[in-house]
Amino acid sequence: MALTWLTLQITGSGLALGTVLMLAAIPRAALMLLGGALSDRISSRLIMFISNAVRAVLVAALTALVIMHSVQLWHLWVMALLFGTFDAFFYPAFQSFIPRLVPDTTLEQANSLVQGTSHLSVLVDPALAGVLVATTGTATAFAIDAVTFVFAAITVSMMHSMSKIVVSTEPTADAPGDTQDTDPKKRGLIADAVEGLRYAWNDTIFRALLFIVAAINFSFAGPMNVGLAATAKMRFAEGATAFGVMMSAWGGGALVGTIIGGLIARPRRRGLITIAVTFLLGLGLASLGWVPGLSVAVVVIAFMSTADGLIDVLLLAWLQLRTEKRFLGRLMSLVMFASQGLAPVSYIVAGVLVDHHLTLMFNAAGGLVLLATAYAALNRSMRQID
Q: Domain spans of the chain?
């Protein structure tokens, strides 16, 4: 919120804001697999600590520039590049850390708690941030951000006493049809990343799942950000308030979905559940092009986000359980790349379609999700996920 507002204050340009967001997204996507390879090689806790500490310094420096009224657009470009780079290493380490910290029997509950806090922030934080920026300015918001990164670094540093993390460097067989004949200690990160790609490619279920995740997230990223904002401005009398309400509905529904996922003890037929939920997501997304008012839009969005939150918990725990521990970081980085890597393209496509025909944009996005559903339903490996 603060970064968006600061960029617009400095430049008054939506294009400038787009460049800042793109410069953060590019290294985050490009380096994600290397971040996963590194988290499979060294302590995930150490990577998270360093990432949080560096990001605290970056935000503190930006806070100082804002206070001195010296901040320029190129400062934001540099910060976005560095921030995206350290994000690429933090997030795979974070996702691979959870199954190394808790027993396998509580993975669903652990993921539910972790994702639930994230969705809670989406529900509550934008409104708080808006009030803070409006009343005290962006410098205060950035200062608080810097403190939160320091707090995160401290709490991560304390986690070693809870569970000893052991990352195996012993050579083991890759997925079927692949063998490993190189000492892992002598390989570089790129070789580790390639090995992770090979492992994922040889796993037919994971390969199909990555395609489905990428298709769904590509279909949702632009429409749920660009599309909903355009809908609020063009069709709803409530304007910006309607956009905030719809985004909060997404956060609230996702929070409910993660809670439900945490309460379900090892459900059977996860593949069939995923196919059914994906089908409903496609229908819901397409229907947003025809919603007659804000109340109907909120109901549809809350329903979709609840289903999305439920599937996130169930599938993430399943992936963490079936993946060899030494590949966890790399496979989690691939999942995150599939989730986020196409987002910038989705924003551009959604923007073009919104200018052409808003309803068509939602219909096309929902249709793509339904195509992904059909692919999943026809894929025997997906149907057999249990």
A: 2-106+126-161, 196-383
